[in-house]
Design goal:
The chain is an alpha/beta fold and 302 residues long. It has a single domain, classed as Alpha-Beta Barrel (TIM Barrel). 46% of the residues lie in helices and 10% in strands. The chain has 12 helices and 8 strands. An 8-stranded parallel beta sheet has the order 1-8-7-6-5-4-3-2, covered by helices on one side. α1 packs across α2. The radius of gyration is 18 Å and the shape is globular. It starts with 8 loop residues before the first strand and ends in a 7-residue tail after the last helix.
């Protein structure tokens, strides 16, 4: 009998809202959290790549996490991204996050270093040893160089508090490879927006959603259609959504998604340097994608 996954459903990756001067806008972040909770999400991921983790100071990260824990108030699990540059700093962060009330963590490889298989596993194990909370391992070799292959996940399975994995290699074949190598040991999430439907067909437990934070009701409905096996309705909604979901897989995905949240009234476009708000023809092109999506937004029945 299949076991129930530890985590499942839509865990949106939340932007860290900023003011024009790049200071934290905690009030705006809190308002966005409430909108997402109302849409029916089952978890929150703060301070991931979309949350601009790597450009925030240690104190700012802790402020954002503390805010999220307070606002969510136990309604769904609150996870924090862990994207420190060393194993020691990552361990320190999860210890602090546990004290702040986080329900778990999404662990990335150590930033700025492409480790070999043994170094990568050692980093993930060091983070796990620093906390008793459940963890999601994040595999994104396109962005972070280190590739957690299905074979490495087999070895990570020995570390008990890793309960989930976020697969963002961009190779949807990995979903089946993971089923064949680790079975149901981990809750399996996709982290690639424009592979959601393909991944759902192959069998996943959850979605760490990006673009959907600007379109939370549609995002949640798409997920629910896949759970119900209503593939024709899911395909129709996915075809509308896909041009927007493509915004999640570009190097400027933070700027693109923040601009989308601004267009729908759920946030502002301000980002932390070295990122800059979009300008010129690129801005016009992305706005056209966003505004076309808004203009043809499907009417969902409650």
């Amino acid at each position: 009998m299949a076991t129930k996954p530890y985590w499942s459903g839509v865990f949106p990756a939340i932007t860290t809202q900023l003011r024009r001067d790049q200071s934290l806008d905690l009030k705006a972040t809190a308002l966005h959290l409430e909108v997402l909770l109302d849409s029916g999400v089952t978890g929150m991921v703060m301070l991931g790549s979309l949350g601009e983790n790597q450009t925030l100071s240690p104190a700012e990260k802790r402020q954002v996490l503390e805010l999220a824990v307070k606002v969510v108030n136990g309604r769904v699990p609150v996870l924090s991204g862990v994207a420190e540059t060393s194993s020691a700093l990552a361990a320190e962060y999860v210890r602090d996050g546990e004290k702040l009330g986080a329900d778990g963590f999404m662990v990335m490889p150590a930033m700025c270093y492409r480790g070999d298989a043994e170094e990568t596993l050692a980093h993930f194990r060091a983070v796990a040893a620093a906390t008793g909370l459940p963890l999601m391992a994040y595999n994104n070799p396109l962005s972070y160089a280190n590739d957690l292959t299905p074979e490495l996940f087999c070895r990570l399975a020995e570390t008990k508090n890793y309960v989930a994995l976020k697969e963002s290699s961009g190779d949807v074949r990995r979903i089946t490879d993971l089923h064949n190598t680790v079975g149901d040991r981990f809750a399996l999430f996709t982290g690639v927006d424009n592979l959601l439907l393909e991944s759902a067909i192959l069998g996943i437990d959850g979605w760490v959603a990006g673009t959907g934070i600007a379109f939370p009701r549609e995002n949640q409905r798409l997920w629910e259609l896949t759970r119900a096996g209503k593939w024709e309705a899911a395909r129709a909604l996915y075809r509308w959504f896909t041009p927007l979901l493509h915004l999640d897989v570009h190097p400027k995905f933070v700027q693109y998604i923040k601009l989308a949240t601004q267009e729908v009234g759920l946030g502002k476009e301000w980002v932390r340097a070295p990122r800059r708000p979009l300008e010129g023809d690129e801005r016009k092109r992305i706005l056209k994608v966003i505004r076309t999506g808004i203009a043809h937004r499907p009417k969902l029945r409650d």
